[in-house]
Specification:
Elements: H1 3-17, E1 26-32, E2 35-37, E3 40-43, E4 48-53, E5 62-63, E6 78-82, E7 87-92, E8 100-105
Parallel strand pairs: 1-4, 3-8
Antiparallel strand pairs: 1-2, 4-6, 5-7, 7-8
Length: about 110
């Protein structure tokens, strides 16, 4: 093994074994049978959450603190939001207020 190959292997091994931040990717919520599913989820900071309406009736996604608000989503429409800060985010369908859920961003 040459010195260059050994150095490259050491760098690669170090990069693969070094701890890193939690993966912030995507998460999905469906609206079906007049409920959000899941009703509670935890995601890392930076995650993009996408809500999709599978009901035949329109629904909205509205945060209790006013941070995000979708238009009325017809069947198979979706809405996405990126969570950039830790916290607990409660949301509701403004058309059907019994539909409530929570996302915890860590």
């Amino acid at each position: 093994m040459t010195i260059r190959t050994a150095a490259l292997a050491a760098m690669l091994f170090g990069a693969l074994s070094a701890p890193g931040p939690a993966f912030a990717g995507t998460a999905n919520v469906v609206m079906k049978n007049f409920d959000f599913s899941p009703m509670a989820m935890a995601v890392p900071v930076g995650t993009i959450v996408t809500w999709k309406n599978l009901d035949g009736e329109p629904h909205t996604v509205v945060s209790a603190d006013g941070l995000f608000r979708s238009k009325a989503l017809d069947q198979n429409d979706s809405f996405s939001f990126k969570f950039d800060k830790p916290g607990t985010y409660k949301y509701v369908c403004s058309i059907h207020p019994k539909m409530v859920a929570t996302i915890t961003v860590q």
